[in-house]
# Entry
Amino acid sequence: MGRESVWADLRGGGRRYLRGAAPWRAAAYVGGGALVGVPVLVTLVASLAVGVVLSVFLVGLPLLAALAFVGLPVAALERRRLRSVDPAPAPSPHRAPDAPGLTAWLRLRVREQATWRELAYAVLMAFVLWPLDLAAAACTLALPLLLAGAPAHLALTGGPAEGGVRPAKLWLVESYPAACGTAVLGLALLVALLYPLGAYAAARAALARLLLAPREAETRAQLAEVTRSRARLVTAFEAERRRVERDLHDGAQQRLVALSMTLGLARLDAEAGSPLAARLASAHGEADAVLAELRELIRGIHPQVLADYGLPAAIEDAADRSPVPVDVAVDSGAGLPRLSEPVESAAYFAVREALTNVARHSGATRAAVRARHADGALRLTVRDDGTGGADPARGSGLTGLADRLAVLDGTLTVTSPPGGPTVLTLEIPCTPRPPSGPAPTE
# Structure
C-alpha cells in the first residue's frame, strides 16, 4: 500500500496519525517552506530594486522582464516538496514548445496562464506564506521543544544555584522537579499541537496544488498525450497503407501484368480454334479481370491521384466513379491548398464513403460535394436529393467515419430528415503544408 497524504492520516484517527511518519512529514514541509521563502523574498526584492535602478539606463528592463519567470523554478521546487505531504502526482501545467529554441520557449511561457499563476504564488510565498510557515513551526514545534528541554537548559546554566531559567521566556524554573514538570508539559503540548500542525500543512499543500498543479493540468497533460498518441497512430496507419499500396503496385500488379502478356503471346502461338487456344483465352481473360480488381483495390487503399495531385483531383476522381451523378465545387480562387497526408486521406475516404452511402441507401438522383479551406480548417459538404433518414447508429459507415475524423480532432455532422435531403458536413482543423515542388506531369 502506498503512502497516504497527511490529511488522509488525520482523518484516519489520532493514533494512526501519531504512529506514522505523517507528523514529521508535515513538520518538514512547514519548516521547509520557511527556508524556501527567505531566498525567494531576497531574490524578488533585490532583482526588483536592481532592475528599477538600472532601468534608467535601459539595462534593467530585461531584468524586470525576467522577473515574470521567477515563479517557474519556485513552482517546480514546490511541486517536488508537495510529495512529503501529498504523494499524489503533481504534474507541471506547462506545455512543451512546438519548436526548438529559446524564442519559442519564451513565447509559449508568456502566453500560458500557468506562468502567471506561478509568479503570483512566488510573490505570495515571499510575502505571506513563509512568515505563516515560520509562525506555525514556532508555535507547534519550537515552543513545546523549548519547554521539553527545560531540564537540560537548567543543567547547562549551572543548576538551581544560579537562579533558574525561563523556558521560552514564559516562567521561572528554579528546581529540577519543576524543570521535569515543565518538560512533561512540553511533550504533552507537542503531541497535542501535532494535529493542528498537520491540518495546517494539509491546507498549505492544498493551496500550492491549486495554484501550481490544478486538476485540469493533469487532465490536459493526459489529453495531450492521448492526442499525440492518436497522431502517431494515424501517421503509422497512413505509412502502413502506403507501404501496402506500394508493395501491391510494384509486386503483385507487375507480376500479373507479366502473366497477362505471357498468356497473350502464348495465344498467338496456339492454333486458332484449338482447345489449347480456348483455354489460353480463358486464362488470359481471368488474368485481366484479376489485374483490374487488383488495380481497383490499390486505388481504394491509397489512390495515386491523391498523392500526386491532391484532394481536389481525388474528389473529382471519386465523383467520376460514383454511379450517381455528382457536382463538385472546390474553393474558388487558388483552390484547395495541399494539406498533410492524414488530413487529405481522411477527407478523401470520407467523401468516398459518403458517395457510397448515397449510391446504396439514399435513392438519390444527384449529389453535390463542396470543399473549401478557411479559418484554419478544411470543410467538406456532401449533399444528395435522396429520401433522407440516414442514422449513424444503424451502422451505415458513418460511425467509423466519425471515429476516423475524431483522430484528427475533426467533426462530422449529419442532417437527414425523412424525405431528405441528406447533408453530411465534416470539418478538420489543419494548416496548408509548404509546397514540395512542381506537381507531376503525365
